[in-house]
Amino acid sequence: MSVYTDLSLQEMQDFSEQFDFGGLKSFQGVEAGVENTTYFVSFNQAETVLQIFEEQGFDEVPFFIELNRRLSKDQVPVATPFANKFGDRLFTIKGKPAALFERVRGSTVCPISADACRQIGEALGKIHAVTQTYQDLRRENHRWSNWWESNVDRVIDLTPKDHRTTLKDQVDRSREFVESTASLPQGIIHGDLFCDNALFHNGQLAGIIDFYNACDGCLLFDLAITINDWCSLPTGRLFAETTAALVDGYNRFRPLTTEEIARWPLASETAALRFWMLRLVALARRREGGPQAPPHVKDPNDFLNILIARRADPQCDLISG
Fold it and tell me: Tens digit of pLDDT for each residue in 2-25?
């Protein structure tokens, strides 16, 4: 989330007139994230979040809106997309697609507890289970193997010199995982269920946000993304208590298969590679400049450390129970 598209008071008032929320009270740009423009918008009768999509086109955004609508209907804690007076949920602002969502009240959890991890595991397991019925809802994974392989040359000089061979070797190892995923359970994945994309209120999960990396994919890969972020110690190794809690919660709604458990080592490595590469590419984009250059980039070495730890010991016992 960030602000690439500036809106004046008049422009926001004009947009607000199509909703029955009792008039605009205030709005504020949110300076965080790297991809989309985000505003907190307060009406007399509703607290909302306006999302203006900077990278996805009008053909892609309906997927995100419909996914959140269905998940909300299926009692998954997510931000509900609002319709205007005419029933529309997809809008155009300055030539860009936009959507208005319920504002989830809560905050990120810190420190991360085993109970919070259990709740996240349950929510992710439920997402993976209920979306099995969304057979008409499809989106290609645009940051899968072709993406990271095509970006190696772009980021190699941004990689620590003593780990450039690690990057190239992991791309080869992850290609092996990608080729094996056809036999693993597939479905809609969140793709970015990090700690800052889950809000808690009074110790309870209030909502999962930022589904803009959601797509068709390998469910085990999505679980590995989540575990890598929620359960990694500063050393990169997994914390046993939180990892076990997250996996237990997940298994309540979608038990892992024997083959998935066997594939955990490469899945966890590949999830670390994906976000190491994502942050390296963000560094490259900032170096290249331009209007879409991210204003800030998180440290890629956080995920390099996780990758090194998974390659040394994937701690399979924490996944198999």
Answer: 688 999 999 999 999 999 999 999
**Buried b or exposed e, range 84-111, using 16+ CB within 10 angstroms:** beeeebbbebeebbbbbbbbbebeebee
Residue 185: closest CA among 218, 216, 214? 218
Q: How far apart are CA 254 and CA 150, in angstroms?
A: 33
**Alpha helices (runs of H) in 36-111, residue ranges in sequence order:** 61-73
Q: What is the pTM of this model?
A: 0.94
The correct CATH number of 9-102 out of 3.30.200.20, 1.10.540.10, 3.30.310.50, 3.30.70.1230 is 3.30.200.20
Rounded Cα–Cα distance for residues 264 and 247 (Å) = 12
Question: pLDDT-based confidence at 34, cuts 50/70/90?
Answer: low
What does the block give as tokens for 132? 């099995």
